């Protein structure tokens, strides 16, 4: 079990120590459950009244809440970021694989960096390059000529198709598929003619991809995920999509082909984004949004209907179906008003 002193926490977070710098913690806990040996934090000031009863060995807060704490305190600019840093330092998640499993099937010409690990029953095909410290989980498939950067981790049963490039310090959760064919077909008199998907997928550095996500290869050019992007579980990212630096996309979102998503966008869960459109930098799209046209200005956009009781929803649906009729009546009334003004 990892342990850290309050002084070490200060080094990790850049915080200022108040109390016993030798106090030791081994885990991070929420304020209501924290006890001896725990470090806790306050990221929302509306819960500051709970600080006086918190039993954590160390509490991370902003300067404005320091006077409310009875235990050792670490004053930090942003307690939530401090929590993330400390949780990383105390993380005890096991590696997806350790060393090279005897049951792994590895082509003779695979290029290995130093300290690479490959799990049981993984298959790594010809021409693959694995960077220093790369970890390939059990049952993974790495296709021909793919490149995996240093310190990148793939959890179990990830499939990486041929020629895909993944950068450094990435994390790919289980059952994700990267580089599968995009949905490209021509129609000839009712018969579907498959268009070979000749591009690939290029993923930058420090990208995290959730479980069960699919990222299709490009039809001609590559599908591109830039650095510092985080993708949740069960996303569908179609061929030739380009996702900009620092963007975050929540679970269940679908992005159709050839769409360009800007930098630092935040896209909520179950959003549907049309193909061949552009979304500007810094756009936030709330959950269940449906994006049919390009978004050219930074801002927050919504289109999902919040949950109502069934009775209220039926009334709303009825009004929506009558909207054309209501619009015609409104225009007729406006015309009558204009005619009276002209008299």
TrEMBL record:
The protein's Enzyme Commission number: 2.3.1.191
Gene3D superfamilies in alphabetical order: 1.20.5.170, Hexapeptide repeat proteins, MurE/MurF, N-terminal domain
Assigned keywords, A-Z: Acyltransferase, Lipid A biosynthesis, Lipid biosynthesis, Lipid metabolism, Repeat, Transferase
A Pfam family the protein falls into: Hexapep
One CC-aspect GO term: membrane
HAMAP family: LpxD
Subunit architecture: Homotrimer.
Name of the protein in question: UDP-3-O-acylglucosamine N-acyltransferase
Organism: Vibrio palustris
